[in-house]
Amino acid sequence: MFKFIGYATLAFLSQFPSLDAATDLPDKENFHLFLLAGQSNMAGRGIIGEEDIKIHPRILMLTREGNWAPAEHPIHFDKAVAGVGLSKSFAEVLVEADEDIVIGLIPAACGGSSITTWEPGGYHSQTKSHPYDDAMDRTHLAIQNGTLKGILWHQGESDGKPGFSEHYEMRLRNLIERFRNDLDNLSLPFIIGQLGQFEAKPWTNHRIIINNAHESVTNDMPLVRFISSDDLTPKDDLTHFDSPSLREFGKRYAKAYLSLSASE
């Protein structure tokens, strides 16, 4: 079902014996998959530079059409403004740590989506999508070829307001449990990135509630990690991390994931 696409892709992959054919994928146990979920800072809005279009032979992405292709930014397709995200630098750390694995990224984040849309039947009008249902469909498609190893989550900006922040922690706990139950893996790592801490845009009380919810969930739910956004910087919009910060953020996610793996 899955094929690499494009003549340029095939020509590139022909240089590498492990991935030298259009239908060639690694063994399922060595094909480590990660679901990318949340909103725009997970989808990525960083400006794409030369280093962001370099292809690594052991980092793949599930395209919008459901094919496996070499990962290159933009990895997401939620909105036309999708750009550099954190997932590729995350994957680069992992493949450097283990030369036997291939990483498969499953993009499913939806810019602007509230956590209320990340439940069965939830609809997000900005992207005309069903965030949770679509993520599950794409993940079930992907795991026909690989092994799901974790979920990367960055979300909360859309819920940092009255009437939403007060219920966020309960919804996040339910979401993590639902993902694990629906994916039949109660030990699935779930990694949460902290909201941006931008000096020019101080947190409101409702943003503080979201942050406290992230920390609380991390403190008492198993195999959940919270990744600091200390010293990361924004684009001019004061909402999205810039490209250097997203690359660094991905490395921090990877360090947390590797620490979880080492403790298993």
What does the secondary structure layout of this molecule look like, with pairings?
Layout: H1 7-13, E1 31-38, H2 40-43, E2 59-62, E3 68-70, H3 87-97, E4 102-107, H4 131-142, E5 147-154, H5 165-182, E6 190-193, H6 205-220, E7 224-227, H7 243-263
Question: How would you characterize the overall build of this protein?
Answer:
There is one protein chain. This protein starts with 6 loop residues before the first helix and ends with a helix. Helix content is 34%, strand content 14%. It has helices at residues 7-13, 40-43, 87-97, 131-142, 165-182, 205-220, 243-263, and strands at residues 31-38, 59-62, 68-70, 102-107, 147-154, 190-193, 224-227. The chain is globular and about 50 Å long. The protein is built from seven helices and seven strands. By secondary structure, the chain is of the alpha/beta class. Helix 3 crosses helix 7 (243-263) and helix 5 packs parallel to helix 6 (205-220). A seven-stranded mixed beta sheet has the order 3-2-4-1-5-6-7, with helices on both faces. It has a single domain (35-263), classed as Rossmann fold (3-Layer(aba) Sandwich), CATH 3.40.50.1110.
The CATH homologous superfamily is termed SGNH hydrolase
Low-confidence residue ranges: 1-23
Q: What is the rounded distance between the termini?
A: 33 Å
Order of helices and strands: HEHEEHEHEHEHEH
Number of helices: 7
Top CATH class: Alpha Beta
Our estimate of the beta-strand percent is: 5-15%
- Work out the helicity level: 25-40%
- Average pLDDT confidence is 92
- The CATH topology turns out to be Rossmann fold
Radius of gyration: 17 Å
Provide the CATH architecture: 3-Layer(aba) Sandwich
